[in-house]
From TrEMBL:
Keywords, sorted A to Z: CBS domain
Protein name: Mg/Co/Ni transporter MgtE
Organism of origin: Herbihabitans rhizosphaerae
One Pfam family in the UniProt entry: SH3_actinomycetes
PANTHER family (alphabetical): MAGNESIUM TRANSPORTER MGTE (PTHR43773:SF1)
Example of a GO cellular component annotation carried by this entry: membrane
InterPro entries xrefs: CBS_dom (IPR000644), CBS_dom_sf (IPR046342), Mg_transptr_MgtE_intracell_dom (IPR006668), MgtE_N_sf (IPR038076), MgtE_transporter (IPR006669), PRC_barrel-like_sf (IPR011033), SH3_actinomycetes (IPR058838)
Gene3D superfamilies in UniProt: CBS-domain, MgtE N-terminal domain-like
Positions of the CBS domain: 345-403
UniProt-listed SUPFAM superfamilies: CBS-domain pair (SSF54631), MgtE N-terminal domain-like (SSF158791), PRC-barrel domain (SSF50346)
Top-level taxon: Bacteria
Molecular-function GO term, any one: magnesium ion transmembrane transporter activity
Length: 415
């Protein structure tokens, strides 16, 4: 069933509907295999809906196909007697005889009555060491103890195997998946993630979820996560905390990491200074085209930030020496690698002042057809750069990350 994660969901005519996020099962009081009630499907709008298994006509490696009919578009809400296979059952610590094992996967099989049941479970003995993992065993459901509602919602689960499922997803998709997990499970997954990955995921969460996860972490790790985040995202998150919490976490951060965040906190978040990142690509005028191309090839730099290279007098760290102009990536690709960036600098592109309003920033991007723009102070020092994605974050309505289609009982998805 782990293979179902992110599998496409299609209508009878092959039209794309969404992707599988999880499978909902109803656990029983007896030892009989539980029935799969349906799948959680994420639509293109990121809304999660429930599709009953009776609507599923086929499950193939290429996707899940639904029968003709309508689907209720109400947002999925988990009921007390329901369990999410990927979110709660995977990695659960259970027992087989006298042995403690961990659930690695589960198999869903159809019955003669067209129901689907969780008939078999793949488990691995717990050794406490990743380097000495035991073999995987595939057992019948009734051979395992500890997969009841109470056990799955109260006992601590190992999140390592679930992280393997998340590892192939983008940070924004992992963030969406975390929001649908029970709070206890969400914290376990966050605890198991490395700092860089968790920082990427937190950046994609709504503000309330960001604060919730940050408050769950101890102060030392919370400071490490803030250091791993982009400075502008870290500043936005810290600005939502109380002054006491903000100051405490800033003090725990390394000085070289906290300094750009402190500078960003001086600006209102709806100004160019509050929107910018203080870590654009900056080169001296005597750098070559080859050096500039090497910098924009860095996979850790977003495509928007890589679209412009800023040329400044030393020092190159923001706030820089005198700002000379910028070079567009298209221009870099057309010039000999041995030439200097000084010879291809665009000196005509206007720049933004840090106190420019959100409306002024929006007009600037629209007027010059940009996905990245410079922020320069009155003394011609480059302070940072604004990217189109950061601008969109502030232009979209509040709560856009968690919102999907509007709630309406009469909405239908015709397939």
């Amino acid at each position: 069933m782990a293979q179902l994660a992110r599998l496409g969901v299609f209508g009878p005519d092959g039209e794309s509907i969404g992707r599988v996020r999880d499978v909902v099962v109803g656990l029983r009081l007896d030892r009989q295999p539980p029935k799969a009630l349906g799948i959680v499907v994420e639509l293109a709008t990121r809304r999660r809906i429930f599709v009953p298994m009776l609507r599923v006509t086929s499950i193939e490696p290429t996707g899940v196909t639904l029968a003709t009919g309508s689907v209720n578009l109400r947002a999925f809400h988990q009921r007390p007697n329901e369990v999410l296979v990927l979110g709660q059952m995977l990695d659960a610590r259970v027992t087989v005889g006298d042995s403690d094992v961990v659930v690695m996967d589960a198999a869903m099989e159809p019955t003669r009555t067209r129901d689907w049941v969780i008939a078999r479970v793949a488990v691995r003995e717990r050794t406490g060491r990743l380097s000495r993992r035991g073999p995987v065993q595939v057992l019948r459901w009734d051979e395992i103890s500890g997969l009841g509602i109470a056990e799955l919602t109260e006992t601590r689960q190992d999140a390592r195997a679930l992280l393997v499922v998340y590892d192939r997803l983008r940070a924004t998709d992992v963030a969406a998946a975390l929001r649908d997990l029970p709070a206890k499970r969400r914290y376990e997954v966050a605890d198991a993630m490395d700092d860089e990955r968790l920082a990427d995921v937190i950046e994609e969460l709504p503000e309330e979820d960001q604060k919730d996860l940050l408050s769950h972490l101890d102060d030392e790790r919370a400071a490490d996560i803030l250091e791993a985040m982009d400075p502008d995202d870290a500043a936005d998150l810290l600005a939502e905390l109380s002054e006491v919490d903000k100051d405490r976490l800033l003090e725990l951060m390394e000085p070289e990491e906290s300094e750009p965040v402190r500078r960003l906190l001086e600006y209102s978040k709806d100004t160019a200074g509050g929107l910018m990142t203080p870590e654009p690509i900056v080169l001296a005028p005597d750098a070559t085209i080859a050096e500039a191309l090497a910098r924009v090839r860095n996979p850790d730099i977003t495509p928007a930030l890589a679209s412009l290279v800023f040329v400044c007098r030393p020092p190159s760290a923001t706030p820089t020496g005198r700002y000379l102009g910028c070079v567009h990536i298209q221009r870099l690709l057309r010039e000999p690698p041995s030439d200097l960036v000084a010879g291809v600098v665009d000196t005509q592109l206007a720049s933004l002042r840090p106190n420019a309003t959100l409306t002024e920033v929006t007009r600037f991007f629209a007027a010059y057809n940009l996905v990245c723009g410079p922020v320069v102070d009155d003394e011609d020092h480059l302070l940072g750069a604004i990217t189109g994605d950061d601008l969109l974050d502030h232009l979209l309505p509040e709560g856009w990350r968690e919102s999907g289609l509007r709630e309406a009982g009469g909405e239908r998805l015709d397939a």
